């Protein structure tokens, strides 16, 4: 059974994941020229990310798996988009944010325990 500090650390890491994914969403809107040509369009939906991180905080078990898959998809888009047009450096800005979120989702024991352990009423 995890201690209270481990549960707090899991919740804090979920907030870090949310900040990384939500911070990467408005960058393509604000700095469009870093991601696509002027006639192009690229955006990241933030609503799903916010709902899934709220689901993780509420300990909805499928939320972690869905968010993990979504983050892998984001990272694949970053890599493919940068390899196809290396002069668009915006993907180098959001790539590390997606990579950090992926590492925390996939490899953090505290996040996994926080989501998978039932909430205790004390």
Quick tags:
single chain; 122 residues; mainly alpha; 6 helices; 70% helix; 0% strand; elongated; transmembrane; transmembrane helix; membrane
Please explain how this structure is put together.
The chain crosses the membrane at residues 12-30, 42-58, 65-84, 90-107. Keywords: Membrane, Transmembrane, Transmembrane helix. The structure is a single chain. By secondary structure, this protein is mainly α. Helices cover 70% and strands 0% of the residues. It has helices spanning 4-24, 27-30, 47-57, 61-84, 90-107, 109-116. It starts with a helix and ends in a 6-residue tail after the last helix. The model has no long low-confidence stretch (mean pLDDT 85).
Sequence-ordered SSE layout with sheet pairings:
Blueprint: H1 4-24, H2 27-30, H3 47-57, H4 61-84, H5 90-107, H6 109-116
Helix pairs in contact: 1-3, 1-5, 1-6, 3-4, 4-5
In short:
This protein has 122 residues and is an all-alpha fold. Helices cover 70% and strands 0% of the residues.
Number of domains: 1
Order of SSEs, N→C? Answer: HHHHHH
User: What is the average per-residue confidence, as pLDDT, rounded to a whole number?
Assistant: 85
How many helices? The count is 6
* Rg, Cα atoms, Å: 16 Å
Number of DSSP E strands: 0
Classification by helices and strands: mainly alpha
Distance between the termini: 14 Å
Strand content: under 5%
Main sheet attributes: strand count, strand direction, barrel closure: none
- Approximate helicity band: over 70%
List segments where confidence is low: pLDDT < 50 over at least 5 consecutive residues. none
Overall geometric form: elongated
Keywords: Membrane, Transmembrane, Transmembrane helix
Transmembrane segments: 12-30, 42-58, 65-84, 90-107
């Amino acid at each position: 059974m995890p201690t209270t500090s481990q549960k707090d650390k899991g919740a804090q890491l979920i907030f870090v994941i949310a900040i990384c994914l939500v911070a990467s969403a408005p960058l393509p809107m604000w700095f469009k020229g870093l991601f696509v040509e002027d006639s192009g369009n690229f955006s990241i939906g933030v609503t799903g990310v916010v709902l899934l991180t709220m689901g993780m905080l509420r300990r909805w078990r499928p939320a972690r798996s869905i968010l993990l898959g979504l983050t892998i998809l984001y990272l694949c888009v970053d890599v493919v988009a940068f390899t196809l047009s290396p002069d668009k450096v915006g993907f180098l800005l959001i790539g590390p944010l997606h990579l950090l979120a992926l590492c925390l989702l996939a490899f953090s024991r505290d996040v996994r325990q926080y989501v998978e352990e039932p909430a205790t009423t004390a």
